[in-house]
Amino acid sequence: MAFTLYSLIQAAILCINAVAVLHEERFLRKIGWGVDQSVGGFGDEPGIKVQLMNLIRSVRTVMRVKKKNFNI
Amino acid sequence: MDLPHHGYRETKPRARAAPTAGDSVLFEDTSSAAPAMNSQGYYTSGYNMGGPSNDMQGGGGMNNLFADPMANAAMMYGSSLANQGKDMVNKEISRFMSVNKLKYFFAVDTRYVLKKLMILMFPYTHQDWEVRYHRDTPLTPRQDVNASDLYIPTMAFITYILLAGMALGIQKRFSPEVLGLCASTALVWVIIEVLVMLLSLYLLTVHTDLSTFDLIAYSGYKYVGMIFTVLCGLLFGSDGYFVALAWSSFALMFFIVRSLKMKILPSLSSDSMGMGSNAKPQLRLYITVASALFQPIIIYWLTSHLVR
Is the pTM value of this prediction over 0.80? Predict the structure, then answer.
C-alpha cells in the first residue's frame, strides 16, 4: 500500500465530510446519539459515548462555518 | 596584519548580509569578520584566495567599502531585509507550533543518544522508567534518559529512507520516484498513528501530559528497529531478516508498554491517586497494548518489500 501525502489529505477530507453530513435531527436522535441526550455526567466522568457525541457536534459546527466560506 | 582586526570591528553587525550581496569585496570582509560567522568565514576565505588575484580591488577592499556608498547602502538594506525575513518566518512558525517546546526535544547530547539507542534495542535491563521533573517542568533529554526526544526519530527516519534506497538499488529496483514514495508512505503511517493515538486519548479523557510531540517521538522510535531489521535482512538474507524483525519487535513492544504505562496509566503505577479518568481503566490498558501491537505490524509492512 503505497500512500502519498495527497491521498492522506483526500482521505481526511472525505472522513470529515462524512461526519459533517450526519444530520442531527433525522438520524442522530433516532439512534440515541443526539447531544441533548447526553447532559448527565458532571465531574470528570463523561464516558466514551458522550465524548464521541461532543466530538461529532463540534466537527459539524466547525464545518458549517468552513463550508459556508468555502462554497462562496 | 591589522586588516582582519579592522574587518572584525567594522563589519560585525553587517556580517549576516554579506553572503547575500555576492560581491568579492564583501567576501573578503566576512572572511575576517565576527566569530559568530566562523564557519562561514572559513568557507568564504577559500573563495578569497582566488578572489584578489582576479579582482583589482582585492587588496584595498576595506577602503573600497567606505569609498563606495552604494555598496554600503546596499549592504545595510540587505541586512535589514534579512532580519525582517527572519522575524516574519519566526512569527509564522510560532503560530503553528511553539518553537520553545520544539527546542526542548532537540536538546540532546551524545551520551543520551547512545543510552537511548541501547534502551530501544535492549530494554529488558532498564530499571527506572520514571520521567524526572524539575519544579513541574520535565527535564531535558540531556539530564534524563527517560525523556522523549525528537532527534532520534528524525535521524532514524532519514536513515531509513536512505537505507531503503540502498536496498532497492542492491536489488536493481531503484528509481528516484520510489524514494519519494517510500518516504511519503512512512510519513503517512506516522501521521495516521499519531492521529489515532490522539483521538483515542481524547475519547477516553485520559489526563496525561503527553503532548503531540511526545506521540510523534514514540511513533518515530520504531524507525530505529526498522533500520536494524533492514540491515540484518541485507546482510544475512531472509533468515536474518526474520530474526531481527522478531528481536526488534519484542524490544520495541516492551519499550512502548513500559514508557506509556508511566504516562497513561497512573493508577497502575506506584501510587494510585484516583484522579483522572476512572471510566474503565482497562480501556487505557487496551490503548497501550494496541499501540504496542501495532508496531511490529507496521515494521513488517514497511520493510518486507525491501528484503526479498
Answer: no
Please report the residues numbered 266 through 285 in chain B whose beta carbons come closer than 8 angstroms to any beta carbon of chain A. Answer: 275-279, 283
Q: Residue ranges per domain, chain B?
A: 156-268+275-303
Q: Within 13 Å and on the Cβ side, how many CA atoms surround B9?
A: 4
Q: Domain coordinates of chain A in residue numbers? A: 2-31+46-70
Q: Which of A3, A51, A52 sits opposite B185 (nearest CB)?
A: A3
Closest CA in chain A for residue B204:
A48
A55 and B CB contact within 8 Å: yes
Q: Is the pLDDT of residue B34 over 60?
A: no
Instruction: Write down the pLDDT at residue B160.
Output: 92
pLDDT at B29: 46
